[in-house]
Amino acid sequence: MNGRILLSMKTHNLVDRLQPDWVCTDCGRQWGLWWDGREYVGPATHCATFHIGKCGVCGEKKSVTEARDYGYLKEGWHEPLVE
Ligand SMILES: [Zn+2]
After folding, report:
1. Distance between CA atoms of 30 and 35, rounded to whole angstroms?
2. What's the 27 CA to ligand 1 centre distance in angstroms?
3. Which residue, 30, 21, 36, is CA-closest to 77?
4. In this predicted structure, what is the pLDDT of residue 67?
5. 16 CA → ligand 1 middle, Å
6. How far, in Å, is the centroid of ligand 1 from the Cα of 15?
7. What DSSP line would sit under 5-67, residue for residue?
């Protein structure tokens, strides 16, 4: 066991127990459960509040919001991408 607990959603995608504080739109679209590729599949009425801050995924200073505003991030977001 590595101490990480995975929660099962309605889909087969897994939400990572470990979530960053802030996520930029680029990372949110890549990792958020409400994003399927380039298509938004989350609730139509959801409102997210953005501010300029450091993204917890890519580390860049961008327009960020909470991970929950992307439906939380999929498992593996914090692992470095392997080419
Ligand atoms: Zn980012």
Report:
1. 7
2. 4
3. 30
4. 97
5. 16
6. 17
7. -PEE-SSS-EE-S---S-EEHHHHHHHBTTEETTEE-S-TT-----EEEE-TTT--EEEEE-G
Q: Which residue has the higher pLDDT, 78 or 82?
A: 78
pLDDT for the residue numbered 22 = 97
Q: How far is the CA of 31 from the centre of ligand 1 (A)?
A: 10
Q: What is the pLDDT of residues 15-51, one digit of tens each?
A: 999 999 999 999 999 999 999 888 999 998 888 899 9
What's the predicted TM-score (pTM) here? 0.76
Q: How far is the CA of 76 from the centre of ligand 1 (A)?
A: 14
The structural domains of the chain, with segments of one domain joined by +, span 18-70
CA of 39 to the centre of ligand 1 (A): 18
